[in-house]
Amino acid sequence: MPIYELPEDGIRSRPIYRPMQPDVAARFHLMVAEGAGSEALAELHEKLPDDARCSIHYLAGGDGPDGSDRLMQLRCEQTRLHFDDGQLADALRRHLESAAMGTRLYVAGSEDFIWRMAAVGISCGMSEEEIHVERRGSRARPVQCVHCKTRVEGVTTNIYTCPGCGQHVTVRDHFSRRLGAYQSVCVDAEAPGELPPIEEIYR
Q1: What tens digit of pLDDT does each residue of 62-117 get?
Q2: Domain boundaries in the chain?
Q3: Nearest to 107 by CA among 172, 59, 46, 52
Q4: How far is CA 102 from CA 37, 52, 105, 113, in A?
Q5: CA dist 152 to 10, 134, 155, 161, Å?
Q6: What topology is assigned to 10-135 in CATH?
């Protein structure tokens, strides 16, 4: 899993994503991606030993470039294309429920995607050390409102209107690993309606 930035105040903040590397202790490499994450899987595959066992699950037809053709050309025991996020998650869960000891999970794509898939791995009993993630493509953030707990995926602006409570909330850098989301808090509590400039900064 990614490490976290440690700013000068010493408070852990947003994740840092680095290129994935094969786990040398792995007996099986289970790779999952969407959109531009296909490039990360292809690069990871090039680093695998010639005798490595691996399988790929890819969400095709979503936002961003479609890397289906390239992934289908890679040498793997199985490469499966999915066209529905829920279908992919179900297939991943079935795979992990019958996986042998030594399986490692690699997930690449948007933050929304990688943390949803990482949650599947954790729910199947994997430890954080057995899951490797890399963000590729959009920088849009999964966000949860601290006031009403409504989760919104794909937020690209510094301020948005929460669909749950209707408040204007600002996206903070604080990231909850448990929730797989950044936290947002009311931005105009003291002066309702007075908002700082809304900017699209997570593209």
Answers
A1: 667 899 999 999 999 999 999 999 999 999 999 999 999 999 999 999 999 999 99
A2: 10-135, 141-186
A3: 59
A4: 23, 12, 10, 24
A5: 28, 21, 7, 10
A6: Rossmann fold (3.40.50)
Residues 6+ apart with CB under 8 A from 6: 12, 13
Do you know the residue count of the chain?
203
Angle 182-185-187 from CA coordinates, rounded to 5° = 130
Bridge partners of 159, per DSSP, are: 170
Q: What tens digit of pLDDT does each residue of 28-40 get? A: 999 999 999 999 9
- Taking Cα atoms as reference points, which of 148, 156, 157, 153 lies closest to residue 196? 157
Cα gap 17→181, rounded to integer Å: 15
- CA 59 to CA 153: how far, in whole Å? 17
Token pair recorded at residue 174:
């604080």
List the one residue out of 13, 4, 20 whose CA is nearest residue 134.
20
pLDDT of residue 5: 57
pLDDT at 6 (0 to 100): 53
pLDDT of 155 strictly over 60: yes
Distance from chain centroid for Cα 51: 28
Angle value at C-alpha 60, between 55 and 63, nearest 5 degrees: 130
Cα gap 128→162, rounded to integer Å: 30
